[in-house]
């Protein structure tokens, strides 16, 4: 009799096998030198937020949030943040495409300059805007002489300051999405006779829409929370330039309970933004 054929899936006892990787990235417990700093870091981030919730004047919250000044500041903040995001979209998406899809001398320098407002102190950004767009600024004096347009200490100035600090978030997000996107679809559209702009409008833009949306949300959130550049370039005039962060700062000096209430409103907006970005950043739904 012939010997029975060996099962193809059987493994010989002499055959070395690779140890299986445990799920979760490693085996055993968490090393104490890593666990302790991680717990302290988590507490460092969460305790201030919990303190804001614990010490909030919940009983007087309705009266604090129904004042006309609060709604005035909130309305102004939403309007200016949305306008600044629109400016960032109109200017930032083409800039991101230029950095991701074209090669030109000094591209790295341009990218560094675009991201500079991310690390620039906001007050310095406000001073720079004053020197550039103020009535006697490098560009502002011509805007005033030719068009009678004055930007500092106006609502438009708030939009300019917020767009200045928020647009880099959009550019970075869109540029990263463009670099990850397959450019062969654009090349295929070009071979079919589409111009480069048509290919961008009908092929590239729908393909990178999630990255554009994420960048717009980040830019909007950054604009909503802007303080330093706004108060330096636009001042703090109720109903005209006094946004929610400025209202929190001023209320903290005279009415701490009102400052806490306004801070909770901004915290709620931040949580809503995080919820909108959970699939992109926190990996929700990936297990």
TrEMBL record:
SUPFAM superfamilies reported in the protein's UniProt record: MetI-like
Location(s), subcellular = Cell membrane
The job of this chain, per UniProt, is described as: Part of the binding-protein-dependent transport system for molybdenum; probably responsible for the translocation of the substrate across the membrane.
GO CC entries: plasma membrane
Entry's family note: Belongs to the binding-protein-dependent transport system permease family. CysTW subfamily.
Q: Which organism is it from?
A: Actinacidiphila reveromycinica
Q: What molecular function terms (GO) are annotated for this protein?
A: molybdate ion transmembrane transporter activity
Q: What is its main location?
A: membrane
Instruction: Cite the ABC transmembrane type-1 domain residue spans from the record.
Output: 74-275
UniProt region (Disordered), positions on chain: 1-26
Please name one Pfam family that this protein belongs to. Answer: BPD_transp_1
Identify the keywords attached in UniProt to this record, alphabetized.
Cell membrane, Membrane, Molybdenum, Transmembrane, Transmembrane helix, Transport
- The protein's name: Molybdenum transport system permease
Task: Tell me the membrane topology, using the record's own terms.
Answer: Multi-pass membrane protein
Bilayer-crossing regions: 30-54, 81-100, 112-133, 145-174, 203-221, 258-277
